[in-house]
Write a structure and sequence with these properties.
By secondary structure, this protein is mainly α. It contains ten helices and four strands, in the order H-H-H-E-E-H-H-H-H-H-H-H-E-E.
Length: 239
């Protein structure tokens, strides 16, 4: 929704509409990780009072997208390296379950849903367009969650968008990793469309484990690049 064309449809739905606008701004990168979200400024931008805005912020906080401070300050969430790894470890479980259920419950519709998203991912390779790939990648995983047809599992979808879209780890956006990821997506699609739940789950979990490995290798490389602290003996710096 463009800021210039914002038009609130009803007071009843106002909070939901504001929530959707703010969430999409976070997902699109308009609001960056860690960025403060001043209530006065945003309320003025959206031509609303601060009451529905505060309620929308609480909804965003429930999805883990913002943090509301004790004094009412609001910031987009940011993730350190450990938090990102923790999130991907959870994704291994829920992505695997989603793929298995999609194969068992949604295989008849899977090809029509997933094949165009694979094509969109391939079209982002030459020339390399990371933002286009990221969008298609998130849509691909979201489609699998929808094909799984489990409302509680679908409630975990924000963590997929958070890890793959809000933070977009550079380790997972190298062209080498993306080529491998698309090949893994193709195998997952084949298993889902074929109705092979156990294979789909194994492939989806393996796909996320490969991402975890890439993240850990990046973290280890960053740690090696940091200068070592001076050695200390009995509280004195060794020279």
């Amino acid at each position: 929704m463009n800021e210039e064309s914002l038009s609130w449809q009803s007071r009843v739905r106002l909070v939901d509409e504001v929530f959707e606008v703010l969430r999409e701004r976070i997902f699109s990168g308009r609001y960056s990780p860690g960025e403060p979200l001043p209530q006065v400024r945003i309320a003025a931008e959206l031509s609303i009072s601060r009451t529905p805005l505060r309620e929308a912020f609480r909804m965003l906080e429930g999805e883990g997208l913002v943090k509301v401070g004790a004094n009412g300050t609001v910031r987009v969430v940011s993730a350190d390296f450990k938090s990102l790894l923790d999130a991907y470890e959870l994704r291994e479980v829920i992505d695997g379950l989603a793929a298995r259920l999609a194969a068992e419950r949604g295989h008849a519709q899977a090809a029509a849903r997933l094949e165009p998203l694979l094509a969109a991912q391939r079209s982002a390779l030459e020339p390399w367009m990371p933002s286009q790939y990221t969008k298609a990648n998130v849509q691909f995983h979201a489609a699998i969650f929808e094909l799984a047809n489990n409302e509680f599992l679908h409630g975990q979808l924000p963590i997929v968008r958070m890890t793959a879209q809000v933070f977009s780890p550079k380790a997972l956006l190298s062209k080498e990793r993306v080529y491998s990821a698309i090949a893994e997506h193709v195998d997952m699609t084949d298993a889902i469309t074929g109705g092979d739940g156990p294979r789909a789950e194994a492939l989806a979990r393996g796909h996320i484990r490969h991402s975890i490995t890439a993240l850990r290798e990046t973290g280890a490389g960053a740690a090696r690049a940091e200068p070592a602290p001076p050695a200390r003996i009995l509280g004195r710096t060794r020279t």
